[in-house]
Amino acid sequence: MHFHSLSLNGHHTTISELLSKSKKGDKISCKIRDPRFMGIFYEIESRGTDIFPPLLSQSLSMSKVHQALHYMDYMVPNTEVLFRTFHIQNVLKKYVEKNILKAVVKEDRESMGMGVHPCWSLNELAWVIIHVIRPPIVVQPMLENSREFRLVILGDTVVAKEKIKKGGIFWNNRIFGGITKLITPGKQIVEFGKEMMNIGKFPWAYIDLFVTDDDIFLSEINLSGSNAGLKDYNLNKIKREMIERWFATK
Known about the structure:
Layout: E1 3-8, E2 11-12, H1 15-21, E3 27-32, H2 38-45, E4 50-52, H3 55-62, H4 64-70, E5 80-82, H5 88-97, E6 103-107, E7 116-119, H6 122-132, E8 137-141, E9 147-154, E10 157-164, E11 179-183, H7 187-200, E12 204-211, E13 216-222, H8 235-248
Parallel strand pairs: 3-4
Antiparallel strand pairs: 1-2, 1-3, 5-8, 6-7, 6-8, 9-10, 9-12, 10-11, 12-13
Helix pairs in contact: 3-4, 5-6
């Protein structure tokens, strides 16, 4: 499915109707699932329509590369974006100079940890990029002594959980055996998350963070995410209410 909950002025519609009927002053709500359709919505927005969630947040949600470019100053230092395979030579040179010996490669549009590749040496990093995956990709130094939090912010609702690895496996996603526990996020973490939302025009967000003793770094941010362990908060209901209130405003 290319779109989810496509609405024009509060009523269900189709992409064909949007293209033929939308006009200045109309309000459109949808979750775009296929980046190939972003151009259509930018054209519709250029007519003077209002789209929710904002297209910037939707584009960021679909692309780790876009996120890395947009949020570079808030990510792990020495994060790099590669658009060509031969650009690996520049990353290797930089990482050698800075004594960065372990790295993580992120494929652009994968999710649930499927596109995250740990590289335990620079030789492995080079091999993965040359033989396993193709750019555009994100390359980051591996943070081994950090905690990973999922922060969810929807209106006045703020919940967080810590993502914990099990069995020595690198990935902490549930599909790989990882577990989560609810935590009470500190003020600094919540403020950092809200700043990330403002930068990307996110009305709500699922925000993954690396937290060390000294710093907070953005891992990823998305309009969607797993509600596992958060059922009591009725997050989907809160989203629907936020959309309804948006349609009701002038």
